[in-house]
Design goal:
homodimer, Arc Repressor Mutant, subunit A, 3 strands, DNA-binding, 12% strand, mainly alpha
Chain lengths: 119, 119
DNA sequence: GAGTCATTTCGTTAACAATCGAAATTAAGC
DNA sequence: GCTTAATTTCGATTGTTAACGAAATGACTC
């Protein structure tokens, strides 16, 4: 577990203080996904999504890993950050009834990168 | 418990996403306090502190009550908001080792409104 | 190593948030 | 009800953040 000062706490909560980032966390709860898949569900510019992902990663909520030509993002499994390790299990149970989140998660189940991620 | 949609969650986390508001929560953990006492510890303009307090109150973390010519703020005891009721006990244990928070809480123990809140 | 496509970085714009001082409001005590 | 002092609201300024499109980077495939 890394240090736990007030700046760290601020960064962790800031990561959670945007509804699009909360949507991303709920989507990744369904399964790991590439940026283009997340983008297609959120309907935001890829650069915007990339920025949100970086904030969530820097706070310790998600991690990335290369998979061929894709970069997959997934919820962090081994939490390094104390705050995240306590918040993540809580948040997992939250927002399950939110209409937008439900719709997002439904799409996340069926999204197919080989269909979506072409241009 | 009130509704728990994504906008509510966003507001709750946004309330926690500023270090001065985190300091206020830790200070109020010591004891209920008037605005002028909190201001004297944080060393911010009263209008700034008032704004932070309103955000924390609207998110459900604190409540206010009149006490003569003062308005006392205290941590909410009966949590109406589901998210707050889960976060508040966690947060209570956090930041205890942060130097600034320790200094704040030390001051909070000895602050005396009858000495501080004159002009 | 050239082409292709996913991802990230950059530069810009617009909206939002933190801060302050000053003015307005509220309430207590005489 | 007048005075005094605490608190809140208002207006302006400054800094931060979310968003976009375009350009740059990175990596796989041939």
């Amino acid at each position: 577990m890394t240090t736990k000062n007030i700046k760290t706490a601020e960064r962790v909560f800031k990561a959670l203080s945007d509804s699009n980032r909360l949507r991303i966390l709920k989507i990744l709860q369904v399964k790991p996904m590439a940026v283009c898949e997340i983008t297609s569900i959120l309907k935001l510019a890829t650069s915007t999504v990339s920025n949100h992902l970086a904030l969530l990663r820097d706070a310790g909520f998600i991690q990335d890993e290369k998979d061929g030509k894709w970069v997959n993002y997934r919820l962090t499994d081994e939490y390094i950050e104390k705050y995240v390790s306590e918040l993540a299990p809580l948040f997992r149970e939250w927002l399950e009834d939110d209409p937008l989140v439900k719709s997002d998660m439904k799409q996340a189940k069926i999204v197919d990168r080989f269909v979506i991620c072409k241009q």
